[in-house]
Amino acid sequence: MPTDLTFIFWIILGVVLAATAVGIVVALRERRQLPPVVPTPEVEAPEAEPETRPAPPTVEAPTEEAPPVEAPTAATSAPELETIEAPTSRLARLRRRLATSNNALARGLADLLSRDRIDDETWDDFEMTLISSDLGVGPTTELTTHLRQAMAIDGVADPAQAKATLRRELVRLVDPTLDRTLHVEGADGNPGVVMVVGVNGTGKTTTVGKLARVLVAEQKTVLLGAADTFRAAAAEQLTTWGERVGVETVRGPEGADPASVAFDAVAQGVNAGVDTVIVDTAGRLHTKTGLMDELGKVKRVIEKKAPVTEVLLVLDATTGQNGLVQARIFAEVVDVTGIVLTKLDGSAKGGIVVQVQRELKVPVKLIGLGEGADDLAPFEAEGFVAGLLGE
Q1: What pTM value is reported for the model?
Q2: What is the Cα–Cα distance from 122 to 126, expressed in whole angstroms?
Q3: CATH class for domain 192-382?
Q4: Are 81 and 244 in contact (CB under 8 A)?
Q5: Domain ranges in the chain?
Q6: Which CATH architecture has domain 88-174?
Q7: Which of 19, 169, 239, 296 has the fewest CB atoms inside 10 Å of its own CB, making it the most exposed?
Q8: pLDDT in tens, the chain (391 residues)
Q9: Distance between CA 337 and CA 313 in Å, rounded?
């Protein structure tokens, strides 16, 4: 009997232990299934982060719109309006350049002044120097004759006196009495119209751009007309010059009728009420009769809208006698009123100033001093001679 009870006891104990074990296992399983349920509240918490993330985009969005704020790269258009040198200081630079240059005319004058005694051979050498500097035979003979007479009377013992005599004679040859006024203003409400003509390679289009700078520096309103329609880069070059000082350029398609473009430019200048319209014409060869006739046509067409107040002929100071041939032919076609001499600084050909004025009975009004944007200056006889004498 006890044995049976013992056996039953162990069976009941085993059942209890088994039930306990099952309960423990079930509890553990339920506990393991809780983590998947617990993360669900935590999954909601990250949803708060996406709500905080939209904030950064709103902060970054302005940085995408910032370029428009920087887009005032049009503000770089402000620096395009360059500071222009005052015309009054430009001639001083020419004098310095002529004084320090090694041109033949300056050397010949310095050599003459350095002599204690001047004989016939010295005068012959002096005359050859003047002729080689394109002063011309007539002006050379005239200058030499006057100098020999003056120095025969005063002598050359006093270098200062000799230099004063030479300066006086040179100024007389250059002729300070000529009217060198630039006629850049019109009458009856019309703008002044300046036609710029010349042979290819003389710096004509560049001169137009530099002249615009001179006038803007004098507080004048200016409009440019790109009537050189045969040279592909001419209109673009002129437009760039105008943009640098805030001056508009009227242009037509490549190969357009130059007279039509010139007329449109003047008409726009009249309507806008500007002070001056500067018309750049094709740099035509003076030997091409048809092209020269066309230049006359450009002037006639312009004058249907407003009178041409100035015709400037651009000459390269280094071309010498060939430049004079050009000048004569242009003068016959368009009635030149003034000369612009380019490449004059440091040139051995400074004497062309005198010769071209005598040939055309037209004054040199402007001179090119070099390649810089402001290297165009009004011509002034005394200052030019002072530069030649190294003063």
Answers
A1: 0.75
A2: 6
A3: alpha beta
A4: yes
A5: 88-174, 192-382
A6: Up-down Bundle (1.20)
A7: 19
A8: 455 566 666 667 666 666 666 565 445 455 544 444 344 444 343 444 444 444 444 334 333 333 343 333 433 444 457 778 776 677 677 667 766 666 666 677 777 777 777 778 888 888 888 888 788 888 889 988 988 888 776 666 667 777 788 888 889 999 999 999 999 999 989 999 999 999 878 889 999 999 999 999 899 999 999 998 888 788 999 999 999 989 999 998 888 899 999 999 999 999 999 999 999 998 776 666 677 788 889 999 999 999 999 999 999 888 777 778 888 888 888 889 999 998 876 555 678 888 889 888 999 999 887 778 888 888 989 888 887 777 7
A9: 8
The crossing angle, in degrees rounded to 10, of helices 90-100 and 381-388 is 30
CA-based nearest residue to 212, from 241, 192, 233, 236: 241
